[in-house]
Amino acid sequence: MIDGPYSLLTLLGALATGLMAGVFCVFSVMVMRALAALPPAQGVAAMNAINSAAMAPAFMVLFLGTAVVCAVIAVVTFVLWPEDGTVHLLLGSALYLFGVFGVTMVANVPRNDALMRLEPGAPEAVAYWPTYVREWTLWNHVRAAAAAAASIVYMLALI
User: Fold this and answer.
1) What is the dihedral of CA 76, 15, 97, 102, to 10 degrees?
2) Where are the alpha helices (DSSP H) in 30-122?
3) Nearest of 109, 12, 116 to residue 60 by alpha carbon
4) For the chain, what is the domain count?
């Protein structure tokens, strides 16, 4: 079992990744389903508004702050190479940094950018909307699962 300040950092990592898992899960199981049920022009307009709101400090601090915590855990683990929990700590960090942050950058953000360039009622937006919902939600499922798994393995490092 890890102890001292390192255990507090790990606990923070577990809590932050768990919170992000909840955010992504809610989006996958409720928000995207609700948006998909709207007429395409309304769904596009609503998702663009959500994506704009996501750039606010409250979400960005949580999303990026969690990435920083995971990166710090990974670096400290490599430097200290603790007797207990090393695999869990490195795996938790990798799950969030690659499975959440990386997936966001290479899968979700490009789709958000493409949607933002479309006028909500335009034929291109209406045609793109079903593809966007399907693909964006699939990658969001990956983010939710990766964040949940990161939280679990961080917790396992604590026991």
Assistant:
1) -160
2) 32-37, 40-53, 57-80, 86-96, 103, 109-116
3) 109
4) 1
Residue at 26: amino acid letter:
V
Is 13 within 8 Å of 68 (Cβ atoms)?
no
Residues in the chain, how many?
Answer: 159
Exposure pattern of 13-52 as b/e (b: 16+ CB <10 Å)?
Answer: bbebbbebbebbbebbeebbeebbeeebeebbbebbeebe
To which residue do tokens 């998909």 refer? 36
The model's pTM is 0.94
- In the chain, the amino acid numbered 135 is E
- For residue 125, the Cα-to-chain-centroid distance in whole angstroms is 25
Q: Kindly state the greatest CA–CA separation across the chain.
A: 59
Each residue's pLDDT tens digit, 63-114: 999 999 999 999 999 998 888 889 999 999 999 999 999 999 999 999 999 9
Cβ(17)–Cβ(151) below 8 Å: yes
- State the amino acid at position 72 in one-letter form: V
Give the integer Cα–Cα distance in Å for 19 and 40.
30
Structure tokens at 102: 């990386």
| The pair of three-digit structure tokens given for residue 151, joined into one six-digit string | 């939280």
Q: State the number of CA atoms in the 13 A half-sphere of 54 facing the CB.
A: 17
